[in-house]
């Protein structure tokens, strides 16, 4: 019998190097932070995940960089064009629509999104010039509507030359 491979299996981190160490330490931090009724996992649902007592889950994509700014000596910024950002968004969209995890219909996908938080955890510095982050923040703060955010993201996608 052949078993189907889920998107979470495909994006599992390489088990060598500082990136995995960073991910493992993040996992240990989440483990030590658990409250009653919560569980944590490593490389199961995402890089790290936490299941809360109320059937809500938090999926963490953990990204680490060794690159630093020559000027500030801090980790490099998470920029609009950062491959880690776009790979993370791509992975999450595939997780949401993963037919091997019984999410082939829009209703199943919405049900999954309603009980899931997505977190990009990184040692990269925040950049005030990150256009993607600006769009999300404006949406969260009610400065733009979901339709405006969607249009802004489409425009950004064109800028990034990600048209399919």
Broad structural category: alpha+beta
Distance between the termini: 35 Å
Q: What fraction of residues sit in β-strands?
A: 5-15%
Averaged pLDDT: 86
- Overall shape: globular
Give the tally of β-strands. 4
Low-confidence stretches: none
Largest sheet: 4 strands, mixed
Helix content: 40-55%
Main sheet strand line-up:
1-2-3-4
Count, helices: 6
Q: What's the gyration radius in Å? A: 17 Å
Give the SSE string: HHEEEHHEHH
Describe this structure in words.
- The chain is of the alpha+beta class.
- It has helices at 7-10, 17-32, 83-96, 106-114, 131-140, 146-159, and strands spanning 39-42, 48-51, 57-63, 116-122.
- Helices cover 41% and strands 13% of the residues.
- Strands 1-2-3-4 form a four-stranded mixed beta sheet.
- 18% of the residues are buried.
- The mean pLDDT is 86.
Question: Layout of SSEs?
Answer:
Layout: H1 7-10, H2 17-32, E1 39-42, E2 48-51, E3 57-63, H3 83-96, H4 106-114, E4 116-122, H5 131-140, H6 146-159
Parallel strand pairs: 3-4
Antiparallel strand pairs: 1-2, 2-3
Can you give me a brief rundown of this structure?
This protein has helices at 7-10, 17-32, 83-96, 106-114, 131-140, 146-159, and strands spanning 39-42, 48-51, 57-63, 116-122. The chain is an alpha+beta fold and 164 residues long.
Distinctive features:
164 residues, four-stranded mixed β-sheet, 4 strands, 13% strand
